[in-house]
Amino acid sequence: MYVNVSVLKETQPHERRVAMMPSVVPKLIKLGARLHMQSGAGDAINLGDAAFKDVTFFDDRKALVCEADVVLAVQPPALEVIDAMKEGAILICFIYAGKEKALVHRLLKKKITCFAMERVPRISRAQAMDALSSQSALAGYYAVQSGSTHLARILPKITSAAGAIGPAQVLVMGLGVAGLEAIATAHRLGAVVEGYDVRPETEEQALSLGATFVETGVDARGKGGYARELSAVEKAKVAAVLTKHIQAADLIITTAAIPGKPSPKLISKAQVAGMKAGAVIVDLSAEGGGNCEDTKPGETIKVGAVTIVAPLNVPSLLGEDASELYAKNQYNLLALMMKDNIIAIDWEDEVLAKTALTHAGKLCDEDAKPAAKVA
Ligand SMILES: NC(=O)c1ccc[n+]([C@@H]2O[C@H](COP(=O)([O-])OP(=O)(O)OC[C@H]3O[C@@H](n4cnc5c(N)ncnc54)[C@H](O)[C@@H]3O)[C@@H](O)[C@H]2O)c1
């Protein structure tokens, strides 16, 4: 007995990641998997098929998935992939069901058990499976690296025979996983770093990474560790405190997000107009519309003397490391449901129950108790 696991080649534009890496193949085989991949799945990160030992390759994705017990991917697959899967098989990838109505309909019709990576609960036990965190951490690093290449100055203090150059001022707005990694990276590179968030608990986290915290007096803790939207009064209160920090910064990194809502606007056009000449904003929230009123998602623009960089799908830009962490996240999730060479899903397991999006032709309810929602 063994479990047939098939890994798709990503087809969405600019997606360089792959859901399997050579280091993860032997671990899955040890769990009882037989590995199949689509030819060229690792091409975008320069991993040829030969880099994957003990894997069978298929050119045709329908042939790849038709016998699979488990299909792995990064992005939601095409509808024809679902149509070609066995009824009752398992699909594990990012879905974002709100944007994928037709896909969800197909998953229900084919009775696919779909685990949506964005639904992995943000609890300590699930950290090893948490792809939102692994990918966000890389994005936070990338933001500092990208921002520093757009600056005409360096981040650390440097002393030379000709005189000293002071360190750059970096402001990180939104201190979730990406923001904290941005703080850590900018601090390591020698910048003077400030952090700001509307969840007060982030103050201690920012301080522990070497930043100071911009205290605005606004507490906008929402449900499940996330932030809530600010009222108009709170926004005005925050803007009054933040303006001088925005104007003092050489590099600003914004990462603020509220689940299910467009990115909150943290930097107004007027605040951009008041920024230092040569300053740079890297807006990691471009996917949700951006944290700056001037942001153009997917573009790098100049507004006066300020550069605004707003990349999309940032983890894909670091495709090799992003794939390594993502493949390990998926392996850790699979390890919860593979025992003795078979799939055995324990629906009492909070991580599996909460990550499931569809099962046996029914939508899984995120808020229901684990076993009840899949009954
Ligand atoms: N396993 C775990 O325990 C675990 C793992 C990862 C994340 N988490 C928690 O999950 C939560 C979400 O993390 P995330 O990285 O997905 O965050 P996220 O991407 O949802 O948001 C990024 C940050 O933006 C902040 N934000 C929202 N509106 C803002 C505003 N108007 N001004 C300033 N900042 C604003 C949020 O507070 C958050 O810190 C956090 O509490 C984090 O600590 C827990």
Question: How are the SSEs ordered, and which strands pair?
Answer:
Blueprint: E1 3-7, H1 25-31, E2 33-38, E3 55-58, H2 61-65, E4 70-72, H3 79-84, E5 90-93, H4 101-109, E6 113-116, H5 131-150, E7 158-160, E8 163-165, E9 169-173, H6 177-188, E10 192-196, H7 202-208, E11 212-213, H8 232-248, E12 251-254, H9 269-273, E13 280-283, E14 300-303, E15 306-309, H10 314-317, H11 319-337, E16 338-339, E17 342-343, H12 350-355, E18 356-359, E19 362-363, H13 370-373
Helix pairs in contact: 5-6, 5-11
The site of nicotinamide-adenine-dinucleotide has 30 residues, from α5 and α6.
The total strand number stands at 19
Heterogens: nicotinamide-adenine-dinucleotide
How big is the Rg? 22 Å
Question: Count of DSSP helices?
Answer: 13
For the residues shown, what is the average pLDDT?
Answer: 96
Please bin the fraction of helical residues: 25-40%
Distance between the termini: 27 Å
**Reading side by side through the largest sheet, how are the strands ordered?**
3-2-1-4-5-6-18-19
Strand content: 15-25%
Give the class from helix and strand content and strand pairing: alpha/beta
Choose one word for the global shape.
elongated
Task: Give the uncertain stretches in residue-range form.
Answer: none
Characterize the largest beta sheet: strand count, sense, and whether it forms a barrel: 8 strands, mixed
